[in-house]
What we know:
By secondary structure, the chain is α/β, with parallel strands linked by helices. The chain is built from eleven helices and 13 strands. The chain has helices at 18-29, 46-55, 69-78, 93-98, 100-120, 154-172, 206-214, 242-255, 280-291, 315-321, 329-345; strands at residues 9-13, 33-38, 61-63, 83-86, 125-131, 177-183, 185-187, 221-224, 236-237, 239-241, 267-272, 278-279, 297-300. The strands form four sheets. The protein has a seven-stranded parallel β-sheet with strand order 3-2-1-4-5-6-11, sandwiched between helices. It has a two-stranded parallel ribbon with strand order 7-10. The longest helix is centred in the N-terminal third of the chain and has 21 residues, at 100-120. The model has no long low-confidence stretch (mean pLDDT 96). Bound molecules: nicotinamide-adenine-dinucleotide (NAD) and uridine-diphosphate-N-acetylglucosamine (UD1).
Amino acid sequence: MSIAPPPKTVLLTGGLGYIGSHTALALHEAGWRVVLLDNLANASRAVLGRLEAITGAPFPFYEADVRDRAAVEAVLKGEGVQAVVHFAGAKAVGESSADPLSYFDNNVGGAVALLQAMAAANVRQFVFSSSATVYGTPKYLPYDEAHPTAAINPYGRTKLHIEEILQDLAASDDRWRIAALRYFNPVGAHDSGLIGDDPNGIPNNLMPYVMRVAAGQLEVLSVFGTDYDTKDGTGVRDYIHVVDLAEGHVAALEALQPGRALGESPFEVVNLGSGVGHSVLELVKAFERASNRPVPWKAAPRRAGDLPEYFAEPSKAKALLKWEAKRSLEAMCASSWAFQSRQAEG
Ligand code: NAD
Ligand code: UD1
């Protein structure tokens, strides 16, 4: 009789946040033992109860800051962690321009402290939440991973600095196995309708704004720019369902294992996108169909710092991770609406 090996343990920093919570579910489903750490700067403890309600399983949770090296090292050692997915960080572009030092402290300082704690605990499998924002103004499209990087705001520069740190670290010691995943535009929610993107205050990003307009909580969507040189004049992005994105993390962690595609490579950057660009108005129309509600909109001036159009070349992820985005824009809108409706019901 063969005995199944014990599940591997993975720590998710920022594990109660939007992408972290969906990834916790996907990793749990894939058989990992998932430990969560979050300082609750942009998350609610209620998410923990929802993860437990969805899965029927407990998730060890530590309320801690990734910059607290001793606390993180204690969690890594105490929980027998073998790999880390690092979501924790701040992500508001405007805020990063107003207060760059806090962004470098939290994002770059947080990553350095976490990596030091990992080295001390002898944990060297690392998946990092990077962003398509590192590419800056497109020299060509779709962006592939060889596209030059030139972040255009402090938030993007924190991601780029961390990628450079990771590259240096991997070059210094070939025991590290590191994947930096460059996400495109994550939207949507888990099928349960219990977790999703629920920003505080007036949303900056398109999908949460559209959700609240459809629900009647906000009056009208301002479409930032209707005169771009794009299919209908509005901005084009590569929207990716957050559940696809979560599954991309499972694939990345599995690919980092010995004998797998990234198992021999100390450091890789990989795009996680669908490869398809959708305009603001295409998303609005898809949302109206999915919710059966009107989404009133008005033309507004271009938003400073916005690029007209970008989308991913996703073939590296397919080749190395055996992963590709599967869920449609309709599914992204329908799941967002289901989450919005559940929230409204309380
Ligand atoms: P989120 O804000 O929902 O999640 C981040 C989590 O990290 C939050 O729960 C927050 O409380 C926690 N956190 C922040 N600073 C911390 C610290 N110092 N110590 C411990 N916990 C801390 O954001 P998200 O959308 O889930 O994003 C996750 C990661 O993905 C971030 O690094 C973000 O920059 C990156 N990313 C997000 C997007 C996006 O559109 N959502 C796109 C590209 C990259
Ligand atoms: C934003 C971040 C980017 C981050 C990405 C992840 C900015 C400037 N950039 O990208 O760093 O990696 O999220 O998801 O914040 N739009 C409207 N009306 C709105 C809101 C948005 O028309 O009320 C348009 C935007 O002009 C853009 C598109 O919708 O064309 C998507 O915007 P958004 O959801 O904010 O994402 P990005 O700007 O692509």
